[in-house]
User: What shape does this take?
Amino acid sequence: MGQKEKKMGKREWDVDFKSKNENNENPPPGYQASFKKTQVSTEKSKAMQLEVHKSRSRGMATAPAKNIFMTMFMMWMSGSSVQIFSIMITFYTAWGAISAILSVNKMFEKFQELGVDVLQDKLIFIAIQIAIFGVALYKGNSLGILPTTTSDFAFRYPILEPLEIGTL
Assistant: This one.
């Protein structure tokens, strides 16, 4: 066994407990005093961090898309008759999409501070929220609570006075 170790030399994972530093302490296993960060590794590290932040920003932008089908399923489960439950779900979905669009700058603010260009991610997020708002509008139209016909605006028409009054 001793000859085999002599032939192979010192292994990478061998720990020399006899060596001590200037404070007469043993360094931790794997510590290399000669290791120093280089400028290239720091730049690579910053580039990798920027890529991680970009992917997290894209993940935040596309996260609402995962809920579109669940929202559509909830709309379908609420039924097609005008009830408080179906109206509440419809308005909640519409209000959630509108409030998310209005708070898009606040949501991506932390990524902008880290130096990530978030314009494309904001546009993706807004497009997904518009699609969710479209689902809510479709449900409102199918419930008949959206004013889409001319009779819904009949209060704006003036009442016509008859030109002749006939007797029977």
Summary: The mean pLDDT is 84. Helices lie at 2-8, 39-62, 68-77, 84-102, 104-107, 109-113, 119-143.
